[in-house]
UniProtKB/TrEMBL annotation, chains A, B:
<comment type="function">
    <text>Constitutes one of the two catalytic subunit of the tRNA-splicing endonuclease complex, a complex responsible for identification and cleavage of the splice sites in pre-tRNA. It cleaves pre-tRNA at the 5'- and 3'-splice sites to release the intron. The products are an intron and two tRNA half-molecules bearing 2',3'-cyclic phosphate and 5'-OH termini. There are no conserved sequences at the splice sites, but the intron is invariably located at the same site in the gene, placing the splice sites an invariant distance from the constant structural features of the tRNA body.</text>
</comment>
<dbReference type="GO" id="GO:0003676">
    <property type="term" value="F:nucleic acid binding"/>
</dbReference>
<keyword id="KW-0540">Nuclease</keyword>
<dbReference type="GO" id="GO:0005737">
    <property type="term" value="C:cytoplasm"/>
</dbReference>
<dbReference type="GO" id="GO:0000213">
    <property type="term" value="F:tRNA-intron lyase activity"/>
</dbReference>
<dbReference type="Pfam" id="PF02778">
    <property type="entry name" value="tRNA_int_endo_N"/>
</dbReference>
<protein>
    <recommendedName>
        <fullName>tRNA-splicing endonuclease subunit Sen2</fullName>
        <ecNumber>4.6.1.16</ecNumber>
    </recommendedName>
</protein>
<feature type="active site">
    <location>
        <position position="157"/>
    </location>
</feature>
<feature type="active site">
    <location>
        <position position="203"/>
    </location>
</feature>
<dbReference type="InterPro" id="IPR011856">
    <property type="entry name" value="tRNA_endonuc-like_dom_sf"/>
</dbReference>
<keyword id="KW-0255">Endonuclease</keyword>
<dbReference type="InterPro" id="IPR006676">
    <property type="entry name" value="tRNA_splic"/>
</dbReference>
<dbReference type="GO" id="GO:0000379">
    <property type="term" value="P:tRNA-type intron splice site recognition and cleavage"/>
</dbReference>
<dbReference type="Pfam" id="PF01974">
    <property type="entry name" value="tRNA_int_endo"/>
</dbReference>
<dbReference type="InterPro" id="IPR006678">
    <property type="entry name" value="tRNA_intron_Endonuc_N"/>
</dbReference>
<keyword id="KW-0378">Hydrolase</keyword>
<dbReference type="InterPro" id="IPR016589">
    <property type="entry name" value="tRNA_splic_SEN2"/>
</dbReference>
Length: 246, 246
């Protein structure tokens, strides 16, 4: 399926595509990275997310780069912003442009990567392989958002959701330490269900299998040994392959 | 959701409903039962189904009662017909109107219920609780067909599919002897996916949980101890409950 750019007519769709090409996601993310580093931005842990206060410029860049969501205005030109645990860890650990403290008034310095890793793991059992999947897609400049609305783990956009419809619905699978496959696609009816639903909203099912390669220890180090296998699953109609003469 | 009778306009939908009321499914099934008993109909085992040859009258009744599907014409006024294992066992064991031999030319008599049960079990691991679910719905005069097209196990109609759209997509769940829940709805994303897909085609998700009540032996006797718990699962929109004043 080709990307479906947003617009009322062919011309405005072309314009959305041209604008996206002119301002690629990699460039936006670099700008966000520089801005957060310069202002020495520091977030703090909330229960299952990370909060930070940012200025109008960063609010704009976070929105353009599709990280998190604004919560409310704190004071003039200061905005309260909420990141998912994967987004926060990506900005801290992979992009090195965000620091995170244990709470808003903490006198102690920011947590190091290993401490954050353990905190997020403790809050969300699936964090290690969900983070691997998230960062795997982000590093390839895909925009990644929650897929709850479509009954999948993530949805993936070629550029900002205001410019283009998402192309993939993603399920993240892995084996736990007992060898059980977590969650989905264990039976045929689930494969049917997922591909049919996503097909109906013009998305393709992308399965990311995170292979832990035998690393069942709990440290951040094991993340570097994880590998990702990618598969797309589509419906196939027998008519596609029938010879015209039959 | 109200039943959606088929028709081009309101008038023909009303007619479809009136016809269905005039000729209830219980009556059609009684006619099929009498006809098959009178002609001493005998099918034979195929790999994962049962085949039988029937005359035009029974072909018509099988179609009206929504059992199986015609395969081809054998000779003038004789039709080759195919039943699923659940349909065949329902006609044999519950309605006592079909006999089944081991193969088409067998000199031996028909198999008894226990022999059939073991044969179907050996061909389809899920047969015991799928049969329980199938017969549970059929005995309440629902028409039951495969739900593969919608990524569920079964779909359920109030009357013949020519007259009415199906109302429910059914998933059949049970615990196997190790205590594992077979298949579906183990994670939230699957619940989302299934309800969203079925909602999109105006069906409700019906979950039939077959409780084996500790019966893990393999004989037909255990079937009588199985019980069925029924749940429907629907999407809920928060707007439904919001007070108008807010």
């Amino acid at each position: 399926m080709a990307p479906r750019w947003k617009g009322k007519d062919a011309k405005s769709k072309k314009e959305a595509e041209a604008e996206a090409l002119k301002e690629p996601m990699s460039k936006i993310i670099s700008q966000l990275q520089s801005s957060l580093v310069q202002s020495n931005t520091c977030g703090f842990l909330s229960d299952n997310c990370v909060h930070l206060t940012v200025q109008a410029e960063q609010l704009d860049l976070l929105d353009k780069a599709c990280f998190g969501r604004p919560v409310r205005i704190v004071e003039k030109d200061m905005y309260w912003f909420q990141l998912t645990v994967e987004e926060a860890f990506y900005l801290c650990y992979s992009l090195k442009c965000l620091k995170i403290k244990i709470n808003v008034g903490a006198d102690t310095g920011p947590l190091n990567d290993e401490e954050l890793w353990h905190y997020f793991r403790s809050k969300k059992e699936t964090f290690p392989y969900f983070y691997k999947a998230y960062s795997h897609l982000r590093m390839k400049n895909w925009v990644v958002r929650s897929g709850a609305q479509y009954g999948v783990d993530l949805i993936v956009y070629r550029h900002h959701p205001a410019r283009v419809h998402s192309e993939y619905g993603v399920l993240v699978l892995s084996h736990d330490k007992d060898g059980d496959l977590n969650g989905r696609l264990r039976v045929w009816s689930d494969v049917h269900c997922t591909t049919r639903l996503l097909g109906g909203v013009a998305k393709t099912l992308l399965v990311l299998y995170v292979n832990k390669n035998g690393n069942n220890d709990e440290s951040l180090l094991c993340l570097t040994n994880y590998t990702v296998e990618e598969r797309t699953i589509s419906r196939w109609s027998p008519e596609q392959c029938r010879e015209r003469s039959i």
